[in-house]
Specification:
With 685 residues, the protein is of the alpha+beta class. 18% of the residues lie in helices and 32% in strands.
Length: 685
């Protein structure tokens, strides 16, 4: 395929980190406001779309993608004031609204409906949180795809928006939006302070009666670049301040007066361990990896927080403990067993009472990072959980204490017809066994090489759980093989699995990926001309590393919303945080040089590369789109083969968490069509 790319100039910039210098010839592409950059980006997007959409199979593939697209993450209705609240995208509406009903999935009435602004664009509903008495609905609205959102308060009795809501901007929905006091008099929330690009966080309290918003001074919180939130307990007399995205910990505790004023004191201090849980009476009950690689459940007395005084309720076992849900007097604990979800039930003393009979082998609807899972959801007296598998989208289920079965409240919207899942293990370079799952149609011959797409992440203590792959299921429906891969750097096998692919051991993550690819090739399940790989965010970094370290393995690679220039990333506050917490000590020259052995932008050289499609959003607050722009420019300049290098930066699209459904469909259709074309997958017409 011969492609004429837009002309791209090279500069002579040099970047420096910890005294280590590296060439940066495309620094000029970082300036998103420059006219020449906007023009170049637009020409690249036009070229990418025209190239992909000229493929005769595009329309059929897009139709398959649309038919297999479902809710990205599982969610359950929220119970408040005797009613059930849920997000719903009504036919004809561009974005989701909120419905309140007497039954979990009853018709109810629409209490928030997205209204287009002056330009005809409706805001994205980032989150919603009804007050406990069901009178006030708080919503977070994002108007540019960036995830940054503002708080709006709607009185459900008067059907009017409240004047003077908090004016602060929230970074995203990961801190749960707002956290109401049990008496509905006010709420805590976490917002950005200063320049939003600085990613600096502060906790606030908003009181409804006089619409005042006051800053919460919690001296024991660490650097402002760390995520943090304040969660009140069920009685409204205490609250905990929890910080850290990857290893959340309750660093401070407060007594609350009737007005929500907090008197803070230190709580769990001087530990890097995860201590993730809830205030339950006079104890903080939590899943921790302190002295337990795969986790244990502990009870911490609010007045005696020293780890020496912690009571172990559930000791470490072969299962990996994940999250705690308090249901009445019971504790429901989710865990992993060989990557699949399991849920155990205990009383508050740690006595095992049984296991929740899950609908299949798959994943509980939880966030990838531990911190967002601390936000209470569902019903206080029942265990509500979304559940999906690699072949079925999210359904909603509940387990009532004492019941022998679970009740299906909402069935999965999509099930991949006649698909099978195979569990496999590959041996990595250092001998570690790495699990992966193959998903294929039953009629696809497992004894012959088949077009296959690897999907992985491998980082930031986030497990890559075996859940429904969304639009990527269209690839399976079209006759391809989807390969869900678990790399070190995640947490599927406990704390050591994360550390085994983090910082000094980060290369293990990529070696694990190559081991899976080579296992597929050695077993004859695919061939070099039929193998692709994709991932988003840190997975986009992984895909970029795969392009530059092992270009021989792949026929097609799609880095999505990628982090690519790890040195340049450190010139931005969020990028600096992301690199420092997971990839390297950015103040150590030796560690920076080690990082340069896998930073994709610095590894580009003249050689034959596989076909590449770079997908990014121009309002991405996490992985700036200039990463994709610079990488595309470098690859297009050095490509010695005939395979195309395409770039599409989508306007008013961020990191993918706040993308309009119609735009997300076009994104998925384009990059999946690119993969199918390169791997030789012909969708049925």
């Amino acid at each position: 395929m011969t492609i004429e790319y837009p002309p791209t100039r090279k500069g002579e910039d040099v970047d420096e980190l910890a005294g280590v210098r590296s060439l940066d010839p495309y620094r000029w592409l970082e300036d998103a406001k420059a006219d020449d950059v906007r023009q170049w980006q637009g020409e690249q997007a036009k070229l990418a779309s025209e190239t992909v959409r000229s493929w005769p199979g595009f329309d059929a593939l897009r139709e398959l993608v649309e038919g297999h697209t479902a809710q990205r993450f599982g969610s359950a209705p929220t119970f408040a004031g005797g009613r059930w609240f849920r997000s719903v995208t009504a036919e004809g509406d561009p974005q989701a609204g909120v419905v309140a009903a007497d039954e979990p999935y009853g018709d109810g009435d629409t209490v928030y409906s997205p209204e287009p602004d002056g330009e005809g664009t409706a805001p994205f509903l980032s989150w919603f949180a009804p007050s406990p008495d069901g009178r006030i609905l708080a919503v977070g609205l994002c108007d540019d795809g960036s995830e940054q959102n503002g708080i709006h308060l709607f009185d459900l009795h008067t059907r009017a928006w409240l004047d003077n809501p908090p004016r602060q901007r929230l970074m995203d929905a990961w801190s749960g939006g707002v956290h109401w006091l049990p008496d509905s008099s006010g709420f805590f929330f976490t917002a950005l302070q200063g320049d939003p690009n600085d990613a600096s966080y502060q906790v606030w309290f908003h009181r409804l009666i006089d619409a005042t918003t006051t800053r919460q001074e919690v001296p024991w919180l660490a650097a402002a670049s760390e995520y943090r939130m304040v969660l009140p307990d069920a009685s409204g007399t205490r609250a905990v301040a929890i910080e850290r995205l990857l290893t959340p910990c309750p660093v401070a505790i407060a007594d609350l007066d009737a007005a929500g004023n907090a008197t803070w004191r230190p709580f769990v201090a001087d530990t890097d361990a995860t201590v993730a849980g809830r205030l339950v009476g006079d104890r903080f009950i939590a899943v921790t990896d302190l002295d337990a690689d795969r986790g244990r459940l502990v009870a911490i007395d609010v007045d005696r927080p020293d780890p020496a005084d912690w009571a172990t309720l559930v000791p470490e076992s072969e299962a990996v403990l994940r999250t705690l849900t308090v249901v009445g007097e019971l504790l429901y604990v989710s865990e992993f067993v060989d990557t699949y979800a399991r849920v155990q039930i205990y009383d508050r003393s740690g006595t095992h009472l049984g296991e929740v009979p899950l609908p299949g082998r798959g994943a509980i609807g939880e966030h990838g990072y531990p911190y967002p899972n601390l936000v209470p959801r569902g019903h206080p007296g029942e265990f509500w959980f979304p559940f999906s598998t690699l072949t079925s989208s999210w359904g909603t289920y509940r387990h009532r204490p004492g019941a022998t079965e679970v009740e299906e409240l909402q069935a999965p919207a999509v099930i991949v017809a006649d698909a099978v899942v195979e569990d496999h293990w590959a041996t990595s370079r250092d001998g570690t066994q790495v699990p992966y799952h193959l998903v294929r149609r039953r009629d696809v011959d497992p004894t012959a090489p088949q077009p296959s797409l690897l999907y992985a992440y491998g980082g930031y203590n986030a497990p890559w759980v075996p859940q429904y792959p969304g639009g990527q299921a269209a690839l399976v429906a079209a006759g391809g093989v989807f390969v869900h891969t678990h790399l070190r750097g995640g947490s599927e096998f406990g704390h050591s699995w994360w550390l085994g692919g983090r910082k000094q051991t980060k290369q293990n993550c990529y070696d694990d990926l190559y081991a899976v690819a080579e296992d597929l090739l050695d077993k004859g399940r695919t061939s070099p001309g039929q193998l692709g790989v994709t991932g988003g965010s840190n997975g986009g970094l992984m895909a970029g590393v795969a392009i530059t370290q092992r270009p021989d393995l792949w026929a097609a690679v799609v880095p999505r919303a990628p982090l690519i220039d790890l040195v340049g990333a450190c010139r931005e506050p969020y990028g600096r945080y992301a690199v420092a917490v997971e990839l390297a000590d950015i103040d150590d020259p030796a560690d920076v040089r080690r990082m340069l052995t896998f930073s994709p932008y610095q590894l580009v050289e003249k050689q034959t590369y596989p076909a590449v499609y770079l997908d990014a959003g121009d309002t991405d607050p996490r992985c700036s789109p200039w990463h994709a722009r610079k990488f595309a420019a470098a690859l297009q300049d050095t490509q010695q083969g005939e395979a195309p290098i395409l770039l599409h930066v989508w306007e008013n699209v961020g990191h993918g968490w706040a993308t309009a459904a119609d735009v997300a469909l076009e994104q998925a259709a384009e990059w999946l069509a690119f993969v199918c074309r390169q791997l030789g997958i012909e969708p049925p017409h």
